[in-house]
Amino acid sequence: MSGALVPLVRAQSAPTATTATATAEITGSVQAENGTALTGVNIVALHLPTGIRRVVITDNTGAFGLKMLLPGGPYALQISQPGFRPQVINNVFLSVDKPSTLKLTLVADVVAVGTRRVDRTALESVAPVDVIDMRELALLAPRVDNTQLLNYVVPSFNSVRETSADGADHVDAATLRGLGSDQLLVLVNGKRRHTSALINLLGSRPYGSATTDLNTISSNALDRVEILRDGAAAQYGSDAIAGVMNFSLKNDNHGGNILVNNGIHQSGFGYNTTVSLNKGLKLGEKGFLNVTGEVDYRGYTTSPTYQRDLTSWPIYSPIRAQEDSFLLANHKTEKDYRQRNGDAIMLNYRAVYNAGIALSEKAKLYSFGTYNFRRGQAVAPWVLPSANPADLGTRPGYDLGYQPNINTRIHDGAAVLGLDLKLGRWDLDLSQSIGTNRMRYDLSNTLNPSMGANSPTSFNAGGLQFTQAVTNATVSRLFDNVLAGTNVAFGGEFRNDFYEIVAGDENSWQDYQAGAPGASGGSQGFIGFDPTSAISGSRQNVAGFLDVEADIVKRWTVGGAVRYEDYSDFGSAFIYKATTRVQAAKWLALRAAYNTGFRAPSQHQQLYRQLTLLPTASGTTYSGIYNNQSDIAQVAGIGKLKAENSRNLSAGLVLTPAKNLVLTADIYQIDIDDRISLTNEFGAGISPQFDAALDRAQTTSVQFFANALNTRTRGLDLVGSYSAPLGRGQLRFTAAANFNETTLRSLKVPTLFQGIQNDEIAGNNFIGQRQLSLITTGSPKSKILGSVGYEGVKLGLTARYTRFGEVASYDFNFDGLDEGGYYLVFSPKAVTDLILSYKVTKGLLLAAGAQNLFNVRPDDLLQAAKNGHAPDGFASMADYQAYYLKTNGTPSTTPYDHDILPYHMVQMGTNGAFFYLKASYSFGQ
């Protein structure tokens, strides 16, 4: 940790004169927070003027002595011990006639996830846990949003921004171990965090699921992030199939900082600026209130390479002469129709508080909360004369084409109130939390063409809201004398989920064909939610759990947890978990776990329905997503959603062959049954009854959520770190990797659709080839991280390397051909970051550098198509093009949108090099 971020201590207020033979000394002791003496603590005294370094370790009483030191100073003391947070003490001055005596206390580096013991460190945990120091990362690394910060330091974690994906442009999804974003449970201070109201559609990754919006929390308000890479549903409930992330808020009762961040991409787009203030305050004698306020702005980005393809998205005509004639006659160029195809514009206001106060020796009251208001602007593809001239209207500025803006207003808030009680030797934790996410769409720079000249240019399109309230009670106790220490925890939970879709203004969804025959209805770019889509619903569930973790002997730990949950809408679940850890040698520990888990279908998946506008080069089509309560779902034989069930097996080892060197390796296999996915889009021709249901629904194609997939995910996690003194500073190496593969074990197809199922050609199956490929190959097959950093007295330098593995998925199949779309393969890409820091004064820290220094971008769609293959059943792209031309009389435009949206957000985003400068001032430390 940076020396500027920890308390400063003076053994004496000023340096004294030295003599040729006079020496000074430092003596003292080191203990844990509970008063236990710490043996083997490494203490380094660095004389800054000369660079002379002296090292000592504490004895079995925790005492240490450093003698024969040069008088004066300043000295920097570095105190470290595995399992405890390192400490740095600056500006220590020594005198000849008076030894400096220090009594030091180290804070245990314990983890809060994967165990209910309060004394487990990351190295001692029975399952792999990554611990990320956010105090340092937020001040030094590129960006300020949590998804981007974590994406470059945790190999099993992935998050990329979407483009032209409606609401997904405004909420960044996050995944762990290649699974879905709704299979990752997020906690804040150990309490369940609500998800976003958004459900990811339009082929975005992760398709058909809701995500927890990690960027609603200020990174400057965080102390650390713990990531449990193991199934933990038996301990924490639904969603924890891939693992658990716990965001721990700062709890300082003094000091604080001001952080200013600025950055921009090499292209000149995407200017970022942030101003953040954190302050710790005292509540009573021992209480604390820590508050953070932040304003964060991000400008839009767009691809620097852009050229319309007349076979794909012409402005006026696929014939070059007619295209040029139109532009010339209207005093336009192709640049006037440039498609924005990168990050959305985003403005965030964030506020966070964390508070705790002792009511008595046996009672502590705590509370914390967050609020985020986000204003976003993304864009849809241009509405052009080449598609449907009737959609242009007659309003000046729109009659030659327009690019609709998809805007959002997102309010996200959460609060928790809790009470910790000592009941004899038992601890009781009672808490009540509530969290809500409200997302409203408003459209601008667009029309409802069916209204003709009367169409407004902005629309309120309705939106979504999700609210979750959780009441929790947990009782725990550590029995010191049972075996070598046994922790018992049990408790219960009551949760209420509420989901709502709100209809937009009539002008945003109505089709007024009488006003402009042949024109499309609804606001172009994003059609509003109509009254038939408006819906609300709630559900409740109760849960009870028992969690036992025992040290059979000091070197052998076993644990077990069982949980029962009952839901008001689909039934109940009983799951369990078993773990073991053996310290086989001082330098080697072995660990393993087996657990069953579940994920309850989200309220979003159970209730969501909407008519979605899908603009294509050949015109506009509509696809309706209907929930499983609808008439058409009943006709289709789509039953009520039930829980996903998982079985997770993992094994690993922890190696500490030398001081300050830690290596871990963990393998895992996760089987998920009844995995929920959006189905393919189904039109007329499947059966007479289904055709009649389509007519009644007034839509051309429909999709449903269904428990359709049984999948298997296998993977390997590797993590290593090493630090060593170098000169007046510290040299640190880290290396980590994740390798994973998801395969389809089996597919569950209702009777009505078994006739269209074709295991050889996957174009129009029950689950579309694109939907399935996003699940099996839509995440990087591997991710490898490496960094080397040096932290000196004033100067720090870190170089980071991140290699994102191959990503593949099928293209959209808007034409509905049995052969489907191109198989797009995005080859591995490597990104290099450079981070430079300088401690100007005691509290002022500057950080500057580059993310993606060499301006690497993912393969564009045309290259990805060349890396992959033509639609199933064709030997080459040329064969497919010849077939398509013969069958349809026009050239194929696939891969779709390759000109206006040349990149998919698949690995590290599409924006290239990013340069930044951060300045932070820490006060009152």
UniProtKB/TrEMBL annotation:
Residues 124-244 form the TonB-dependent receptor plug domain. Belongs to the TonB-dependent receptor family. Keywords: Cell outer membrane, Membrane, Receptor, TonB box, Transmembrane, Transmembrane beta strand, Transport. The keyword Transmembrane helix does not apply. It holds the Pfam family TonB_dep_Rec_b-barrel. Coiled coil: none annotated. It comes from Hymenobacter ruricola. This is TonB-dependent receptor. It comes from the Bacteria. InterPro entries: Beta-barrel_TonB, Beta-barrel_TonB_sf, CarboxyPept-like_regulatory, Plug_dom, Plug_dom_sf, TonB-dep_rcpt-like. It is found in: Cell outer membrane.
